[in-house]
Recover the amino acids of this structure.
C-alpha cells in the first residue's frame, strides 16, 4: 500500500458520517458520536431519511467517498432501509445500527439491516448499540493507522481495568452474603 | 494520516485472516476467500475453535495485528463465540459470519454474534453470507486505499450490469406471459 | 370524482409494474403476472434491484406514475428494501411480496417490508404469495372501475365453487373412513 | 377505462370505511381517520367485530361496495380475523392494521392478518401503524384520481421538508458534541 | 343435570363435525376422523372455507348445534380464521388444529387460532396434531358420558402398555451399547 | 346417549376444577372462576403445583373424575407442565391457560402447554386469557346440556349488544373527527 | 469410587465459583449466592468478563479446578460467551444463567449460552433464574454427598409445604368468589 | 466432605439413567449413551413417558437416587415435560435434552425444558445435542472424582488435537484458493 493510494482526507474534515432517519434516533445514535469524540476522530451527523428524502439519501451516499468520508454509520428502525441503501451507492464500509422501536424489540430493525444480499454488505452491530458502531468505525480506520490502533489497544486495556474495579466492588458485596475470598 | 502511521504489511503477506471453528464451515466460509481473491487481497485461512482450542484462539487473536493482519473474518454457528472472543483480544476490526446449523436456521448464530456488549463490536453480516464478509473486508481496507476503492466501485458497477442482463432475460420470459414492454 | 381527474392510461399500456431484485425471484413473482393476465390487466415485469442498481430503482419509481402505471408490485427477500424504497419515490400504491430465502423462512423479508415508518406505506401480502399481490392490484384498480369489480366478484364466486367441488371430493374420502353424511 | 365504468360515489358519501373489533382500538385506529381527513377523503368509522357480531360483520362487508365504499380499513389484534373475513365478502381492497395487544407485541396480530391464503389478499401495514393505513387508502384512491395523486405527491414533499428541518436541529445538537459541519 | 336437558342426538347422526378450508388439509385432518372412529363417535367431514365460502361457513356454524352436532373440529393454516369464526356463531365447543404451511412452520397458524379475544374461546391443539383434536372431542363428549369415559381410560391404559413395549425394545438396543440393566 | 351413562354429579358439587401452580397466578386465573360464576357452574379452585407437589398433582388428576369433576382448567407459566401432566392422568378434558411470566411474553408458556404429543390433548386458550378457559368449560358442559347451551347462546347475544353499544360511542367520537354517518 | 479419587477441597474453601461479566448482573446473580448460602455450600463471587478481560477469564477457568472449585456458575447477557468459554478451559461442570438485557427479553442470552457445540456442554437454566443455578450446583455436589442430598430432599419437601400454604390462602380467596370446597 | 457421606454406588451398577418419552428419541439420545461409554461410566436407558405412563415416571424419579443413580438424563420433544417432572421428584441433578420435532425446530422443546420455575432446576443442553448431555453427566460425576476429571481433561485435549488436524486440512484446501500460509 503506497502513500499515493491513500484517499485524501483534509485535516479536520469529517472521516465518519453518522446519519439516521429522524432526530428521534439521536438519543441512541449520539453514543456513536461520543465514541468517535473519545478517539479524536472527526465526524459529521445528519438526518438522512431513506423514506422521506430518498433522492437526498442516494445523493449523500453517492458523494460520501468523494467528500472525504471513510466510514458511514447509519441508524434506522423497523423496516430499516437506510444502511443497506447507502451501502448500495458507496464503496465505503457502512455500519448499521438497528434502532429498537415501540414494538418487536428491534428484531425487525436487526433483520432489515443485517440480512443484505450477496454483493452489498452492511456491518451490523447489536440492537441499539450505537456506541459499538462508533468503536467499530475506529477499528476500521485503525486497520491502516498505527496511532489510532494504539489508542484502541489502550481503550481495551481500560475496559479491563474497569472490569477489575467492578470485580472489587462485587467481591465486597458478595462477602456480605458470606462469599469466601477468591484467594482462599 | 501520515504514511508513517500506516501499519506495515509485508508484500504478499496476508492482510485478512479467515478463521472458523471447524473445517465443516469451509463450504460456507470459502466464499469469503473467493471474494478476497477476486480483489487481489492476500489472506490466510485456518481452523481456530473458541471451544476446542481456546488458548490457541486467544493467541491467534492477540498476535493477529502484530503479524500484519488488518481484518479478521470469523465464522461460527450455534452458540457462536469465536468472532466476539477474537474481537476482545485484538484491536482489529472483526467481521462475524453466522453459520446456520441444522436447527433454528441460524437465528442462534446471528444473535450470539451480533449482540455484543458495548466496548467490543463485531461487524456482523447476514446468516451464511460469507461472501459479504469478504466484500466488507475489502471495503474496510479500501477505506484508506484509493486503488482498492476503485476496484470496489468497478465491482459495484458490474453488479448493476448483471442486474441489467437479468432484467433482459426476465422481460423475455414475462413477454411470454403477455407482459407489455416497459418502454411502451 | 370527475372524468377529468382520472390519470390517463394509454390503451394497452401497462397499468401494473411487477418488479423484483433478481430473476431468481421470477418463479414466485410470475404468479402475480398470471393473476393480472386472468383479469386482463396489462402489466410489465422487470428486474429492478434496490441494492445492485439503486439509481435505476429510484428512477423507475420516480417515473412510474408519469409513465401511466397505476400500481407497483415489488418482490424482495431478506433485507427486502425494494418495495419500501419505491414507495418513497412514487405516490402510487406499492404492494410488497416477501420472498422467502434459504434461511429464516421469509420472516426477515416480511418484517423488512411491512414495518414501514409512518408516512410511507407498503401494502404487504403473505410470504411468497405473489398471486395475492396480483389480485390485490386488481382490487385496487377495481376500486374505481365497475367492470373490473364485477370480474373480481365473479372470481370470488368461482373460489366458492372450487371449494364446493373440493368438499364433494372430501366427503367421498371421509365416507370411506366411516363419516356420516352431513345431510343426515 | 371509461367514465361509465367508474363506480358511483355520491358527493360527500364515505369512500373509506374504517372498522375495528372494539372501541378500545380507536386510539390506534383514529390515526387512519386523521390521515383521511388531511386529504379530504370522506370516511365512516364503526365497531364491526368478527367474533362478537359475525353476522353483522359479514353484512357490512357484503354491502360495502354497494353502499359506495371504495376501500375498507380494518384493525384487529391477537387472532385478528376482521380484515381477512371482510376481504372474503367484498371485492374492495381491504387494508389490515395489526393492533398490538398486551402480549406478543403484535406479532400474533400481524401474522393473523398478513398470512392470507391465495385468492383473498389483505393489504397489511406495520404493527399499530393506522396512519399508514389511511395513507395507503389515499394512494389507492389516487391510483385513478389525478387531483388526489397530486396531493399525495405534495404530502411526500412535505415529509422531505420535515426531514430537512429535523436535520438542521440535529446538526446543531451534534455540533455541541464536536461534530464537523457536513459542508466542510 | 336432568335427562330432559340433554340435547337430542339422533342415533347414528354425526356428533362431531370435522371441517377444513381445503381438501389439501385432509392428510392432516383425517387423523381426527380416525381417532373418532376408534372411539365409535359418529362424525361428518367437509370443506368449509372461511375465505372462499364465508356465507356457507357462517351458515355451517350457525346450524351446527341445531343439526345435532356437539363438537366442531376445524383445521386451518396461515391466517387461520375458520376455528375462531365458527366459534363466534355457535355455542358448541370448537377445537382448532393449526395446519402448518410451507413457511413459518405453523407458528402463524397457531397464533391465528389460539389468540382469540375474551368471549369466544377456541380449544387449540398442537401444530398439525389433528389426532389430538379427535381425542379431545372424545374427552369433551365423555365429560357427561360414563361409557365413553371408560373407553378413554382404557385408551390411556393402552398408551401405557405401548410405552412399556417401546421400553423393552429400547433396553435391548441400549444393552448392545453396554447399558446396565435397570434392575441391577 | 342414555341417562344411565351420564356420570353422577352431586347437586352443588364442583363440576370444574381450577388449579394453578402458585397463588401468584390467581389474578389471572380468577377470571375463569368469574366466568363460571356468571353461568352458575359450580367450581373449586386450588394450588396444585406440578413441580413443588408432584405426588399431590398426580393424585389430584387421578381422582378428579371420580370426585365428580367434569372439566379441569389448569394455569401455568414458563415451562408449564401442569395442564399436560393432569391430562395424562385423567380422562377429563383439560383446558390449559398459558400464564405470561416476566420474560418471553408467555410464548414459553404457550408452547409448553399446546405442543402436547399425540394421545394426550390439552385444550389451550390464549396467553393470559383465563376468562376464555372458563367460557370454554361452559361450552364443553353445554355440549350435552340444553339449558346451559341456551345460556351460552344468550351470552353470545349479549356480546353482540355490547359491540353495538361500543359502535355507537365510536361513531360519535369519529363524527368529531369529521366521519360521515355510516347510513349516508 | 474410592476416597482417594475425591478431589481435595480445603475446609471452608469455595466449592462453587459465581462469576459474571459485570457487577450490573449482581442483582440477578446474587440469588445463586443466596441459594448456596442456604445449603451451607462455600462459594466465591467475582466479575470475570469474557470480552473485557479475556486473558483473565481464560486464566480463571483454567485454574478453577486446581484451586478446589467443583462447580462454576456463570451469568451473562446478550452475546453471552462467558459460560461457554469457561466450559472450554475447565473440566468442571459449568452452569449458565442467561441474563435478560433491555431488548429481546433474554432470548439472545439463552441461545448464546445453551446452543454449545458437541464436546463442550453448558448446563443452562431459565432466563434470569440464578436461584436455580445455585440449586443445580447443590444437586451436582449432592450427587456424591449423602448429607447434602438429604438437605436437598428436605428443601423439596419445604417447597411442597409452601405450596400447601398457598393453596390454603387461594381456597379462601376463591370461596369469596363462590367456589365450592374441594372436599365436597 | 467425608467418605462416609458419599452415596453408595454398587460396582458396575448404573450411575446415570438415560430416559426418553419414546424409542423414536433413541437415535438422538444414544449419543448420550455413547459418550458415557467412552468414559466408562455405567448407565441404564429406558422409555419413561411423562404423558403415557405418568405414574411410572413419578416412580422412576422417586426411586432413582435410592437405586444408586447419581445423574438423570432426560430427552423429550414438543411440550417436553419429562426432565422437569423428574427433577421435581428427585434430588439428583437432571439434564434435559430438547429433542426437535417435525415443526418449530426444537424451540418448543427447548423452552418447555429450560424455563423451569425457581426451586426445581433442569440442566439444559442444546437442541438435539444428547452427546453434550452425556459429557455434562461425566463432568458432574467428575466434580468429586479425580480420576474421571483427568479423563475429561484428556478428552478436552483430544478435541484440541482434532481441531489442529482439521486446521491442517483446511489450510491445504485454502492454499488451493490462493491463501497465504499463516506462518508467512
Amino acid at each position: 500500500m503506497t502513500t499515493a493510494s491513500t484517499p485524501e482526507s483534509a485535516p479536520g474534515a469529517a472521516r465518519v458520517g453518522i446519519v439516521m432517519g429522524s432526530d428521534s434516533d439521536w438519543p441512541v445514535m449520539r453514543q456513536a458520536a461520543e465514541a468517535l469524540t473519545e478517539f479524536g476522530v472527526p465526524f459529521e451527523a445528519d438526518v438522512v431519511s431513506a423514506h422521506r428524502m430518498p433522492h437526498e439519501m442516494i445523493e449523500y451516499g453517492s458523494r460520501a467517498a468523494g467528500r472525504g468520508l471513510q466510514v458511514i454509520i447509519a441508524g434506522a428502525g423497523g423496516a430499516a432501509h437506510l444502511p443497506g441503501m447507502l451501502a448500495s451507492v458507496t464503496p465505503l464500509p457502512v455500519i448499521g445500527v438497528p434502532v429498537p422501536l415501540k414494538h418487536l424489540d428491534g428484531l425487525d430493525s436487526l433483520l432489515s439491516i443485517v440480512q443484505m444480499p450477496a454483493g452489498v454488505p452492511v456491518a451490523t452491530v447489536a440492537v441499539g448499540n450505537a456506541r459499538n458502531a462508533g468503536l467499530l468505525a475506529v477499528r476500521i480506520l485503525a486497520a491502516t493507522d498505527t496511532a489510532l490502533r494504539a489508542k484502541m489497544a489502550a481503550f481495551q486495556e481500560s475496559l479491563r481495568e474497569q472490569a477489575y474495579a467492578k470485580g472489587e466492588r462485587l467481591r465486597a458485596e458478595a462477602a456480605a452474603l458470606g462469599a469466601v475470598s477468591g484467594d482462599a
Observations:
- The first strand of chain C starts at residue 16 and ends at 20.
- Residues 16-143 of chain C form a domain with the Rossmann fold fold (CATH 3.40.50.1970).
- The longest helix of chain C spans residues 146-176.
- Chain C has a mean pLDDT of 93.
